[in-house]
Amino acid sequence: MTFLSLVNESFFSALMILALIIGLGTFLGRLMELIKIPSITGYFVSGILIGLFLLSVGLESTYDSLSVLGNIALSFIAFELGTRLHRKKLFHSFSEVMVIVLFQALFTVGLVMVLFLFFKAPWEIALIIGVIAMATSPETIMVLSRKYKTKGHLTDAIMPHIGMDDILGVILFSVVIAIATAVNAHTGVNVEIAIVEPILEIFGSAIVGAVLGTALALFINWSKNNSSEHKHFLLMGSIFVIILITALTSHTYHIGEEISFILSPILTPMFGGIFLTNLTAKEVRKENDEAMDQFTPPFILIFFALIGMQLVLSIESVTISIGLLVLMAVLYAVVRVVGKQLGVFTGSKVKETPKTVVKYLVRSLLPQATVSLGMAQIVLHNEDLPEYWREVIFIVVLIAGILYQLVGPFVSRKALIECAEIDPEQLQYFIGDKSEEADHHPFQHPAEAVKKDAKH
Q: What are phi and psi of 295, to 5 degrees?
């Protein structure tokens, strides 16, 4: 068989699987919606089924051909999160958010560390997975927020918490992974590794994201007009910047012979979105969001399906006891939630916080996939760390991420329903068609009324 034939066969397999992902994911997503379960869960299930199919026909390598789409989807998600972090909302509750985020970090990292020390993990490994546990995935709540047009104090609080949570998490992870690498390489904590490289990654990501976000904002402001093609220009500009960021974050940069670093696939697009949203007018931001909303759904579907596929393919090749991994993952998932809830509760005592946020914030931030899996993949490919614990961290985070994604969208949506922050027309779908009650008791009524109806 010629080289060209092999290439064509590879493209054929990848495109057929991609078509299957979109077709099956769309079907299962719609099926889940019909039984009032978020479509995201259907996307995950489709990935698991396709992963099993790939194993049965020996096409596991096809996953690698599609993984670039997952990287692009991650950039879209992080970029969109950045566009939700407008300075007015950030500065309005900045001190409240930072206090809660810091207490969340303290309790979550501490409790997860203790858990893995109990499983006899080295201290630096326990610290790594403790920092990974901090991360919160923005994609689930953002998809729900966009789909159901949520508004209110909880919705306003969620995005800054996710943003600050992930920024702090990525910064700490960069430092911790460098320390753990140095410790296991038996070279001591090298200053260049432990300080210089993380600083280059963090500040490099912020600078590159800021420059590209500013350039996009200038382009959008310059091209602003009332023509029907304007939204197309906005969309193409945003897509160009996001794909460029994906490329830049996929490359390793070298300074001299010893120092090397990457740009964060989370921070870089997030800062791009932050600078874009803060340098453009409200009506322009709205137009850009509407244009992006028409383009991103397939990438979101592919992203969640690839995680489901990744779970199946990873577990199939692991040599560690599956029962032990599942036990670790379940305990990790529970302890992480406990740590975050303690952090929210303690932080709210230090800084006065609305009761709605204290009660529902952790439920809304339950899902964990994108950021944590990105960190876990970095650990998995770091050959200086012990192979056993690299596999443990990756599989535990992956299983926990799946557990969170199976129940997280439902729990997050329920929290938004109980807070009466879902658009009235969308809320009608969940609590039943009660037209007479709706005429006399609008869905914007107090949360108590919504809670009563939501039980049906």
A: -105, -30
Of the candidates 307, 273, 318, 360, the residue with the CA atom closest to the CA atom of residue 87: 273
**Which DSSP string do the residues of 102-124 spell out, in sequence order?**
HHHHHHHHHHHHHHHHHTT--HH
28 sits in which H/E element:
helix 3-34
Asked if residue 368 lies in contact with residue 259, where contact means CB atoms within 8 angstroms, the answer is: no
Residue scoring higher pLDDT (85 or 43) = 43
CATH architecture of 68-417: Up-down Bundle (1.20)
Whether 396 shows a pLDDT value over 80: the answer reads yes
Rounded CA-CA distance 8/123 in Å is 48
Q: Are the CB atoms for 280 and 220 separated by under 8 Å?
A: yes
User: What is the per-residue pLDDT for 446?
Assistant: 37
Instruction: Write down the mean pLDDT value for the chain.
Output: 79
**Domain residue spans of the chain:** 68-417, 423-456
pLDDT in tens, 290-314: 777 778 888 888 888 888 887 788 7
Percentages (nearest 5) of helix, strand, coil residues in the chain: 80, 0, 20
Ramachandran quadrant class, 253 (left: phi over 0; alpha: psi -120 to 50; beta: rest):
beta
Tokens of 422: 């879902």
CB 48 within 8 A of CB 309: yes
Q: Where are the beta strands (DSSP E) in 193-320?
A: 252-255, 259-262
φ/ψ region of 152 (left if φ > 0, alpha if ψ in -120 to 50, else beta) reads left
